[in-house]
Structures are given as C-alpha cells and as structure tokens.
Amino acid sequence: MSKYETLGIILSNFHDETLKELTEYRTTASVPFGGRYRFIDFALSNMVNTGIRDVGIVTKNNYRSLMDHIGSGREWDLSRKRGGLVVLPPFSNNFFGIYRGRIEALACALTYIKASKAKYVLVTDSDVIANINYEKAIDDHISKNADITVMYKPGMFEYENMRDVDTICFDGKKRLTDIMINPLVSGEQNIYLDMFIINRELCEKIITDSISHNKYSFSRDILQAKNDALYINCFEIEGYAKKISSLKTYFEASMELLDKSVRDELFPRSSPIYTKVRDEVPVRYGLNSIVSNSLIADGCKIDGEVINSIIFRGVKISRGARVKNSIVMQGATIGENASLDYVITDKDVLIKDSRTLTGYKTYPMFIAKAKIV
After folding, report:
1. Can you give the pLDDT at residue 278?
2. Domain span at residue 89?
3. What's the pTM value of the predicted model, to 2 decimals?
4. 358 and 244 within one domain
C-alpha cells in the first residue's frame, strides 16, 4: 500500500464507442499513442509514481491486446506477491449483466475492493493523456474531509468533438454544485476528467445501493443527484492534460507531442511514463531519406520523406514516399512514391506504390488495421 493507503482502479473500456475507429480490435486502454506507448501507460505510471502499489484494471471486451501489453505488470513494478496488478474480467448476473456505466463497472470489482485494506479508492478512465502525481489531490481530499473528490481541467470544450464528456460547476470552496452530462455547449469549461477519489467504505455502499435500485451512471446518479447529500470536492489538474474523446482529439493530442514543451511536461525525468519494453534495432535512415519535426520509434526503416509525423515501431517507408502530418502505427509499410497527408494508419497496414491518401486537419483519414490500399 502507499503511504496514503489508496487502492487504484482503472476502467479500460469506457469511450470505446467514441473512439470506434481505434477500438474495433482493442480496448480504449490499449490504443497506441506517441510512437511506443498505450493509453493505459499514463494511468498506470501516474498511480505508480504516486506510490500506489495495488491497482485493479476492470475490463469489458476486446482486451486481448491489453493483456498482452501489461503482462504481469513488471514494467510498472507491479508484479508482486502481495498486491500489485490485478486484471478484473467482466461478468454478468441477474442484477446488471455486462456493465452499462461506471457504478456497474465498479460492481465487477466489488469483491476486490472489499478485500482491500485501503482507506481510499482512486478511480480513473484510461483515456486521459497526462503526467499526474495524485498526492496533492489525495491530500486535498483528506484535508477537506470530502466524501468524493473529482478531478477536472479547465479548457476549450467543443461538443461536436467531445462526445461522452461532462463538465462541472463548483462554488468558491471548490464544492461541486452541478455536473452537465454531454452538454451541448462550446467555449471555456471545467472538463471532468472521469477521475475521482472516494472513501472505500462509501464506495462499497454506493455500489450496493445503486445496483439494488438499478442505477449505473456515476455522473448522473451520484455526482448530479447527490451533490447536496455528499461533500463532493473538486480538484484542478495542473499542467498538460488531454482527454481523448474522438478521432480528432486523438490526432490533435498526437500532433501536440511534436511540441518539445508538451513532451517535457508529459515525460519528465523525475516522473517517467513506463511501457512494455520491446527490444528493437535503432532506426535505419537511407541515403535518400528526409526527416523533419517527427517522432520515429525503433525498428523503422526510412528511405522516404517524413514531415510532422509520428511513426511507430517497425514501420517501413519506401524510397520516394512522402508522409506528412500523419500517424503511422506499428508494422505498416508505405510503398514507393506513395503520399500520405493527414492520415492515420492502424497496425500492419500496407499502402502500395504510388498511392495518394489525403485527409484534413480536422478530419484525418483513417485506415483500419491490416488493410491494404
């Protein structure tokens, strides 16, 4: 246990529908990001860097790639005899079937939560790209004697591209006054990051009471309906934090990695983001290669031109090919004289010679896993 006696719970499958292009064959938690990472690397690393050593991952479906990625949890120092990393597969019963909301998802972990000796439970989705040390949030929760502490980030809200995202309102003492669920608004808002700290005994009570009344939405049935009865505290996350809620926001967050200041915030030496180790040879650059402002992972062979792009492990870009403003995932091959601009290719895609694919900044073209163009 950490010095705060906190149990970590990561929900791996929420927002699968809003990221359906990327989650056809995988969970939200295992969506590739930044050339070598998966979404869940950020949630897991943040908990480990905070000192949380007991983490449960609640799954739902399509979680084979997630299991392959996290393994025993060794990369996060969570492969332990006591505590460590636990994967909690879904199950159904007469009460709620396969879960519909966060309360029912937590019900899948109820036995795990009850068995813990933790005083607090930290629950997070896996779709937030951020480097967060939760110590300040936990301290704030304890000092205010709050029942629940929700975490938020002020930022621009665009309802067209931020599906299944909630916003919150609070008073001068940061006590929650309202939560708007999937609001049809635009402009500066306090964006709820689907992260919260809750007292463990209260968490157990909420789960059992809600299931018996067929309530499953944590935002609607708890935060919205009980903000007067419970002391719900609001805590602002400082620094870079991006909630991935659509293919457009995924593309934006990926392209923001090309900004050194963003990389410095996300990957400081003092608080590393851990991921599965893969032994690959260094990138091989051909005599005709041209590379500018791009992130290129190990194992790639570059003989063409790469500009403002993110290239994952094991990608081959052939002679004469031009990749610009694009994301090329692991194992893809770009043929000779092919041209990509504002394109996202999933794993193992083959773009044949002389093909031209063009999307747009606000609507990138997506090529599904293992497709041939």
Report:
1. 86
2. 6-266
3. 0.95
4. no
